[in-house]
Amino acid sequence: xxxxxxxxxxxxxxxxxxxxxxxxxxxxxxxxxxxxxxxxxxxxxxxxxxxxxxxxxxxxxxxxxxxxxxxxxxxxxxxxxxxxxxxxxxxxxxxxxxxxxxxxxxxxxxxxxxxxxxxxxxxxxxxxxxxxxxxxxxxxxxxxxxxxxxxxxxxxxxxxxxxxxxxxxxxxxxxxxxxxxxxxxxxxxxxxxxxxxxxxxxxxxxxxxxxxxxxxxxxxxxxxxxxxxxxxxxxxxxxxxxxxxxxxx
Length: 249
What we know:
Elements: H1 3-25, H2 28-39, E1 44-53, E2 59-69, E3 73-80, E4 88-92, E5 95-100, E6 105-109, H3 122-125, H4 130-133, E7 134-141, E8 145-152, E9 161-167, E10 173-179, E11 185-198, E12 201-210, E13 218-228
């Protein structure tokens, strides 16, 4: 190969490498960890309203007070409606329980069930950090967003694969598609209403989900009162479930 040809080939190769640089420059797992930090920054408390809307327009609402510690511990208690008041849930890693006052003891529940019905699953309601459950690969990048492919780290994870659109500016999810191991689309979750909750917490205040498996139904989750707060380890135990509501200030 002559020198001019070698020089031209090297230039083309350099351009090709530079063209790929933006994708190589982003560490997908580090980006996912940043998303987690923006969405659920460590130990916190918050209030959530879940609204299940049926095809005929009828709806049912639930209000939950939720506490969180670390990347894999979350508990919540129902405040409304009156028929659900006092029920509480606990998630430790992939293990979940529902406490019903009339029963008087915790009952094991699964990730794909739903303690409120509707389209949200227990995994959606008691969400762990994404980076705990998934490893990430960068699929696309443009001036406004990153697109991540998330693969479950183990068979116990509710959704085998997620496709996540991440807003470049806020580093929070804009949309997530959840897939089964077969490749079937289970649901789509869309985040909106970026809100400053104070103390450096800036994240979506609304999450809406629909599913091709439940046509005509949709569920909405509204977030409020998100604040940093530390809790003792005993809060995240089966014995503490009847007293989660006592934590409210």
